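Hey L., structure's done. Input below.
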Amino acid sequence: MVNLGQLQAHKIGVPLMNLVMLKGVPILQQLHLEERLLRTSSQNWCIINDGTNQSTIVMGVSGKPAELLEIESVLCDQIPVVRRFSGGGTVLVDPGTIFVTFICNKDAVAGLQPYPQPIMSWSGALYKKVFQGIGDFHLRENDYVFGDRKFGGNAQSITRNRWIHHTSFLWDYEVRNMAYLKRPARAPEYRLARDHLEFICSMKDYLSRSIFINRTIEAAKTQFSIRSTESESIETTANTKFCPSTRLLTKQELEAAAFASPSVGSLSESISL
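Output:
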């Protein structure tokens, strides 16, 4: 049965998008949901998760812990490390992070070529509407920035018929958490070798969480017919067998990566404390 929302969207030529609002959902659970919707659903989705429940490091599919993390500190403080299914860099997320994800069929956005840079440019134009009149917003080398300070990091995955673009927005962050991340060997040119605290900024200095979320939904409405969907209903409608590739790295994997790194010092002593 075709519902009224689908008929109305079809009549006016605007694609339908399901909106899922979450609050404080663990990032691993969110990524499992996103990966399943990318690979098993044929609908368009926008997922907004207002914060996650605990500090967690999230790495891209090809990220190497020894190159990206201060593994000794990560292990000592028992910070979870997740390797997601999409590309992109490494980020430490926590309750101060707001996540926005778009999962779309390749023909959902008219004229959009399903490749990384066109999708990135499309997202930049969308968020330009969100931040209109707020700060000096730009898309710079795949990051969202105010001036020359990053507040939004992006990652993508593109399949045969669909794509996902998800963003971690730093509404706020814990300064001490930045010590878990190494300065990446590959960094955007505009970073200019700045350390993490000189490179990033908080969105809270520019707008509230609720205003940002509401403006994001309004911007999405300019291109999609939005239908609110409960996350519980997704679980009951997907019968396709699915095994996510996004996973939590084990302590043993992190220890092995640390011992393989030439920079390891007193790791064995600190682990036993």
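The chain has ten helices and twelve strands. The first strand starts at residue 16 and ends at 23.

-- N.
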